[in-house]
Amino acid sequence: MFWLVIVKRLSYIVFTLIGISILVFVLTRVLPGDPARLALGPEASEEQVQNLRHELRLDRPLPVQYVCFLQNLAHGKLGKSLVTHRDVTKDILERFPATLELVLVSLGLAVIIGVPLGIVSALHKDRAVDYAARLVAFAGVSLPRFWIGIMLQLTVAYKLGLLPVTGRMGGLPPPHVTGMFLLDSLIALDFTAFGDAAIHMILPAITLCLSPLAQITRMMRANMLEQIHKDYIVVSRTIGMPETLLVYKYMLKNAFNAILTTVGLMLGWMLGNAFLVEQVFSWPGMARYGIHSVLRNDFNAIMAVTLVVGLGYLVINFVVDLLYRVLDPRIRLEK
Amino acid sequence: MSQHILDIKHLQVWFHTIDGVAQVIQDLELSVEPHKTVGLVGETGCGKSVTAKAILGSLSVPPAEIKRGEVIFWNQDLLSLRVKQRKQLLKQSMSYIPQDPMASLNPVFTIGQQMVDLIKWHKYANIGLGGLLGLRGWTKNKPARKTALQLLDYVSIPAPEKIVGSYPIELSGGMRQRVLIAMALVGDAQFLIADEPTTALDVTIQKGILNLLEERIEEMGIAILYITHNLGVARRLCDKICVMYAGNVVETGPTLELLEDPVHPYTVGLIDSVPKLTKESYVGIEGTLADYLRPPSGCRFHPRCRYAEEICRNTPPSLREIGEHRFVSCHMMENFR
Amino acid sequence: MNTTNEQSTQYKSGFQRAIYRFSRSPLSIIGLVIILVISVVAIFAPFIAPYPKDAISAVHFGNSFQPPSLAHLFGTDEVGRDVLSRVIFGSRLSLKVGLVVVAISVLVGVPLGLVAAYVGGAWEVVIMRMTDVFLSIPPLVLALAVAAVFKPNLTNSMLAISFTWWPWYVRLAYGETLSIKEEDFVEVCESVGASKFHIMFKEILPNMASTLLVKVTLDIGYAILMGASLGFLGVGAQPPTPAWGTMVSLGRVHLSRAWWLTTFPGLAIFLTVLGSNLFGDGLRDLLDVEMER
User: Which of A204, A24, A176 is CA-nearest to residue A94?
Assistant: First the structure.
């Protein structure tokens, strides 16, 4: 029974990916502006442009193009970027760890700060702490990411000179293991590099974590408040069980399960949406690469980035679903 | 009077709502003797649960307000105690069986985990973080678990080993209710409040639970305040019945006596409206339940009472002793006794 | 024989309770105030802005890069235009984006969701799968892609954002319809022979109105935010149109010497979205309470 569920989900992922690929394929081919011309620049001769078009199979009907695309995909080839002139897969592999690292740190911050904040907010409902936390939460979702990033750069980095303005590292990156500098520098026991990478991470991570932080805080608060009135909590309190036990064990477990799915979803979402932050802080990540590809109609790159992000999103959804089954006995045991 | 384990005197509870003040409990008087089962009987909305909550101290104080009264438990007025003292007293001597077995158990923990937590908290003074988290090394886990199994057995649950590892959702309603009863018995309380424990169950399951209760109550000698709207259940389990209407106890008496020879017009109406095989037609009670926002003046039952006179409209009656352990709250009772 | 208190209790009406609860929440009131202020500013922009001509075309090279002062509360930009006036006019553009995007999404998404849930069958499969596909693509990427297809300007960016927004309304309507259609009154209508159309739009739709209203209020803010993000990336309204996002992006170039160019437009975006959030949240609390009754 369980395996059936997995198979169903996996096939669903595949179908959705196919759907995404078709959508992006059509969009990119339909875009006005000749990709070949864009790639070669205005000086290239008409003949050169036509050659490139033929090479890219742009002169064939759309369905044929799509089939070729699928064939290439089956061989693991996603084509070359029209901008960097390298294999798109290579481009992405280079940049993916940067985005992943940023996203993980931001999400980690959001959870570490957001969960306790939400709990405290719920327990002290309508008092000063609650209002402060709620205001922070509202601000977090309302602040335009690009703007607050710039503001932070202006104040903390530029005017006060406390942190670097842009970039991932000041000096040399640590030897490549995962591509995530914080991790790699720890593995290599290079603490200077670690400090360097960490300092560069601070502002971008703070900027990126604000929105998920706000959402997590609100959700924890709402869930805990809901728990307070649940019968099993009321009964336990009536027979006098200590409040500490109640809060930190009984209410928390129920409330936390609910946000787990959302946190997973946020992870997938952030992978694709970190580019505003990457743009402002010149962070060499995949999201920024994706946006630049779109702006230049570098369709192989666009397709690749979309597929990677789409796949990541779907896989994370899937994992979160499974996790939810494990954690919540009600779902697991419901026939 | 100090031989009562619980003695409620002149309790008045108001609720502040958006629409005004709901004067739910007007002037409630009720007592429970040690080792006896007292039934608190009344229709839905008469204030039974509010009374239970007032005793247990679980009324949310805004919006509720205890205007006056005493809740004397083991010669101490619970209402005048500080929260900590009260909690301490309750932990040692009072317990509670809630109404809805589905909602009263935490769905994400196993029965065993919940029971062990409860047992640990009751029996061991400083359970500390290790105890709270149920860490494996913590020494008292084993005896706590043993106690849990014993209790589950005591409430006639088959295969307690299996139940201990199950989640609430895996158990039937009847099982869950037994678990709740078992949990109420942790801690050797001398007084138990049972809030309509069988209302949410099927009639056939009810029977099993009632059998169980009957047996165990006998064995344990525990005093119980049994809240129900079902006269049949009250008849079966209770030594004494208190009939409640619109926030007051209107009649009190030993079970059989009260049921066979009711005095208060409400009690009479209540008993008369129970369907019997031998009866041909049924008489309900005219009128509807009092509106607590604008309760009737004087005796709260007077709008529905065929014997009502001027005095009933003006002055609220109070419980008067009319026989051994018999109390009735009515101005007109001499006229029809 | 029987006398009762003749006066029945005066229960407060639903509306009165709603107002009472809303007024208890200072945050919601702040949200409402912000929204009202911004709406007024947008509507009366030409009368409120101190230098209305600066909003589009005027240039005063001599006056460029003036820091905030009494004459120019938000300072002036690189061609000497008054930033305050531009921000004020920018509110019109932002509100337009928010309202249009949400309107389109509702008009397209809600019927689709209703049909998918109520009619079911092949309709359901097709509509929901399509929705899933759209939802799996990072919204900004999708919006960008679409915006890049056509010339970058305000209208096209609005259309692009709507393109990514409607699936959320399909989902919402779908979920709501699934639960509402199980209610008794729907069964009654069906047995009486009401047409599917009637049931969907005259019976089920009003029941999801409050949920929809809350989402709409919140979404207006988020749509404005996305519009500003597109503007920042260069695919929204183009200069000299005083769109807030575009202004932030252009001002960034001069950040070190003229911080006010990015600060104030960004602040405006923030406050607008904040207002929509606070108000929407208050609305949600209010309507939840109503639904409890």
Answer: A176
Query: Which residues of chain A neighbour C233 with C-beta distances below 8 Å?
Result: 276, 279, 291, 295
pLDDT for the residue numbered A246: 66
By the 10 Å C-beta count (0-12 exposed, 13-18 middle, 19+ buried), B28 is classed as buried
Q: Which residues of chain B have pLDDT under 50?
A: 1
Q: CB–CB of C276/C35 below 8 Å?
A: yes
CB-closest option in A239, A253, A257 to B95? A239
Is the link from the previous residue into C240 a cis peptide, with omega within 30 of 0?
Answer: yes
Question: Any residues with CB less than 8 A from the CB of A142 and at least 6 apart, and which?
Answer: C221, C225, C270, C271, C273, C274, C276, C277
State mean pLDDT over A92-111: 89
Average pLDDT over residues C100-122: 90
Token pair, residue A298, equals 């570098």
- Rounded to 5°, the CA angle C132-C136-C140 comes to 125
Q: How does residue C107 score in pLDDT terms, banded at 50, 70 and 90?
A: very high
**Is pLDDT above 50 for A12?**
yes
d(CA A308, CA C272): 34
Closest C-alpha among B326, B299, B303, B315 to residue B243 = B326
Residues C101 and C286 sit within 8 Å (Cβ to Cβ): no
Looking at every residue in chain A, the average pLDDT score rounds to: 80
> Distance, in angstroms, between C12 CA and closest chain A CA?
25
Q: How far apart are CA C262 and CA B287, in angstroms?
A: 72
Q: Would the CB atoms of A240 and B91 count as touching at under 8 Å?
A: yes
What are residue B11's DSSP bridge partners? B28
Beta bridge partners of B240: B38, B254
Nearest to A231 among B87, B103, B108 (CB): B103
pLDDT at position C143 is 72
Which one is predicted more confidently, A185 or A60? A185
Whether C108 shows a pLDDT value over 90: the answer reads yes
In Å, how far are B11, B25, B29, B246, B267 from B43, measured between CA atoms? 19, 14, 18, 9, 11
Task: State which amino acid sits at residue A213.
Answer: L
Residue B152: which of B123, B121, B122, B185 has the closest Cα?
A: B185
Q: Specify the pLDDT at position C6.
A: 42
pLDDT for res C1: 40
Nearest Cα neighbor of A275 from C134, C230, C277 is C230
> Angle at the Cα of A121 (from C37 to A252), degrees rounded to 5?
135
> How many other C-beta atoms can be found within 10 angstroms of the C-beta atom of residue A172?
10
Question: What pLDDT digit, counting tens, does each position of C240-281 carry?
Answer: 888 899 899 888 888 888 888 889 999 999 999 999 999 988
CB contact under 8 Å between B170 and A333, yes or no, is yes
Domain borders along chain A are 98-285
For residue C91, is pLDDT > 80? yes
Chains that touch A (3 or more CB pairs under 8 A): B, C
Closest by Cα among A241, A248, A228, A333 to B116: A241
Looking at residue C169, its pLDDT comes to 92
Are the beta carbons of C10 and B19 separated by less than 8 Å? Answer: yes
pLDDT at C4: 42
Asked if residue A208 has pLDDT above 50, the reply is yes
Q: Tell whether the model's pLDDT for residue C113 goes beyond 60.
A: yes
Beta bridge partners of B25: B13
Alpha helices in chain C (DSSP H): 14-23, 26-43, 45-48, 83-118, 121-136, 139-149, 154-180, 184-192, 196-198, 205-207, 209-233, 244-252, 260-292
Rounding to the nearest 10 degrees, give the CA dihedral for residues C153, C156, C159, C161.
-50
Which of the four CATH numbers 1.10.3720.10, 1.10.10.60, 2.40.110.10, 3.90.1710.10 does domain A98-285 have? 1.10.3720.10
